[in-house]
């Protein structure tokens, strides 16, 4: 059994061939990806299968969604130990206005936000926009 198979099983996800391929693809890219990016990488796979793979990963804490303001949902692999809880695992995202890549800046945590009484946060997303290190040179 490979390391990826063990990881998926630890997350209660059956390690099918497609799930392993999608996980490897995302790990290799190291940036957030849209469903269309994955579809372009796996042209012979059905869109529904790829979408369900991403949803399964999201439901089991393997990926998280990023709304970077482009109108296209992006997905990024969660870091080790992440459980995607608002209280613990918030980090910055950076969207490059030039190359259009969005990356997780997991080393830059967002501090806990104290909302007024009666307010309940369901999702928090902080995206910084500008030029990435490759485009700013």
Automatic annotation (TrEMBL):
The record's free-text note on cofactor binding: Binds 1 zinc ion per subunit.
Annotated residues for binding of Zn(2+): 96, 99, 132, 135
One GO biological process term: regulation of secondary metabolite biosynthetic process
UniProt xrefs under Pfam families: FUR
Record flagged with keyword Zinc: yes
Keywords recorded for this protein, A-Z: Metal-binding, Zinc
Cofactor: Zn(2+)
GO molecular function: DNA-binding transcription factor activity; transcription cis-regulatory region binding; zinc ion binding
Source taxon at top rank: Bacteria
Protein name: Transcriptional repressor
């Amino acid at each position: 059994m490979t390391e990826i198979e063990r990881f998926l099983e630890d997350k209660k996800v059956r390690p099918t061939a497609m799930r392993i391929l999608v996980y490897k693809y995302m790990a290799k890219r190291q940036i957030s990806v849209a469903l269309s990016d994955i579809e372009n990488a796996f042209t012979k796979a059905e869109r529904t299968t790829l979408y369900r793979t991403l949803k399964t990963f999201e439901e089991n804490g393997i990926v998280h969604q990023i709304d970077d303001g482009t109108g296209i949902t992006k997905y990024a692999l969660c870091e080790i130990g992440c459980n995607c809880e608002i209280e613990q695992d918030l980090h910055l995202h950076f969207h490059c206005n030039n190359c259009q890549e969005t990356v997780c800046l997991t080393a830059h945590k967002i501090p806990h936000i104290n909302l007024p009484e009666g307010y309940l946060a369901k999702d928090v997303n902080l995206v910084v926009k500008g030029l990435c290190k490759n485009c700013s040179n």
